[in-house]
Specification:
This protein is an alpha/beta fold and 268 residues long. The protein has helices at residues 41-44, 48-53, 78-92, 105-116, 133-157, 159-165, 169-184, 187-192, 199-203, 222-229, 245-248, 250-260, 263-266; strands at 4-6, 9-11, 13-16, 28-32, 57-61, 98-103, 121-127, 209-214, 233-238. Strand 6 (98-103), helix 4 and strand 7 form a beta-alpha-beta unit.
C-alpha cells in the first residue's frame, strides 16, 4: 500500500484483506498504536493476523511523526489524531463505520473519535487506555512528565551518538527518531494541553466498547470510569500484568478481542 496523504501529512498505511474477501461491506478494523517508541508493527505482529483470519478488513497506520509517517512540526493532540484518521479513511474510500482498536494513547484518540465523529465508529477496543475523569488527568500529567524527562536526557546525554559509537545502530536509530519527535515537534506541548473527555461526552457514545487492562497497571482504576459513563461497556482484567498487555499477553488479549468482536458483522 503506498503512503497516503491526509490532513496535511504523509502517512504510512498497511491494509490487509481476508482471503475470503468477496466485496461485502463488512466494517473494517483500524488499529491505533501508542506514543513515541511505537508504530503499526506492534499490532501487525499481534492482533492484525487473527483479526484478518476472523474475516475482517484490517487497516494499520503509523501515527503522525511515528514509524514511516511524516514527522510534522505540529499536530499531535488527540483532536489532531482524529482529524488524521478521518482524513485517512476518506483517502482510502472507507465510508462505513469502523471498529477502532487503540493501545495506550491510541485508545485515547479512538475514544475521542467516537465522541467527535460517532457516525464513523462501529465499536471501540481500548487496551490500557483511559480517557475520562481524574484517572485520565493523572495519566496525561504522568506522560508529560515522563516524556519531558526523556526529551532532556536524549538532548543532553547525546544518547543516539553514544549508541552509534558503541555499534548499536538499530537502537541508535530508534533513539534518534524519539529525539527528533520529542525535541523537534510540539508533541509534548500538545500533550500538556490535552483535556480528558467529559463524562457527559462519554455517556453519549452509543457504540459498544471493550476495555482491557492489566491487573497491576496504574491505569486499571480507570476501568471503573469506563463502566460508570459508557452505556455499553465490557471490561476485562488480565491478571499479573501492568501497562504491557499487548506485548506480554498477546494470546489472552487475542482471545478476548476475537470473542468480543461481533463476528457475524465482521464477516459480512
Amino acid at each position: 500500500m503506498p503512503d497516503i496523504h491526509a490532513n496535511g501529512a504523509r502517512f504510512h498505511v498497511q491494509r490487509l484483506a481476508p482471503e475470503s474477501a468477496d466485496g461485502t461491506r463488512a466494517p473494517a478494523v483500524v488499529f491505533v498504536h501508542g506514543l513515541v517508541m511505537d508504530n503499526l508493527s506492534s499490532f501487525y505482529y499481534t492482533l492484525a493476523g487473527p483479526t484478518v483470519g476472523a474475516g475482517a478488513h484490517v487497516i494499520l497506520y503509523d501515527l503522525r511523526g511515528h514509524g514511516r509517517s511524516e514527522r510534522t512540526p505540529r499536530g499531535y493532540s488527540t483532536s489532531g489524531g482524529v482529524a488524521d484518521l478521518c482524513g485517512l479513511l476518506d483517502a482510502l474510500g472507507v465510508t462505513e463505520p469502523v471498529y477502532l482498536v487503540g493501545n495506550s494513547y491510541g485508545g485515547f484518540i479512538a475514544a475521542r473519535m467516537a465522541v467527535s465523529a460517532p457516525e464513523r465508529v462501529a465499536g471501540l477496543v481500548l487496551i490500557e487506555s483511559v480517557c475520562v475523569g481524574a484517572s485520565a488527568s493523572a495519566w496525561i500529567e504522568d506522560m508529560v512528565n515522563t516524556l519531558t524527562a526523556k526529551a532532556l536526557s536524549l538532548e543532553y546525554n547525546r544518547l543516539p551518538e553514544r549508541l552509534r559509537a558503541a555499534g548499536r545502530r538499530k537502537i541508535a536509530r530508534l533513539a534518534a527518531q524519539a529525539d527528533a519527535l520529542l525535541n523537534g515537534t510540539s508533541l509534548i506541548e500538545d500533550l500538556a494541553t490535552e483535556r480528558p473527555l467529559e463524562a457527559a461526552e462519554l455517556a453519549e457514545v452509543g457504540c459498544p466498547v471493550l476495555g482491557v487492562f492489566g491487573e497491576r497497571s496504574e491505569l486499571a482504576g480507570g476501568a471503573d470510569d469506563l463502566r460508570r459513563y459508557l452505556p455499553d461497556c465490557t471490561i476485562e482484567i488480565v491478571p499479573g500484568l501492568a501497562h504491557t498487555v499487548l506485548r506480554e499477553a498477546t494470546a489472552p488479549l487475542r482471545d478476548i478481542v476475537m470473542e468480543w468482536l461481533p463476528r457475524r458483522e465482521i464477516a459480512g
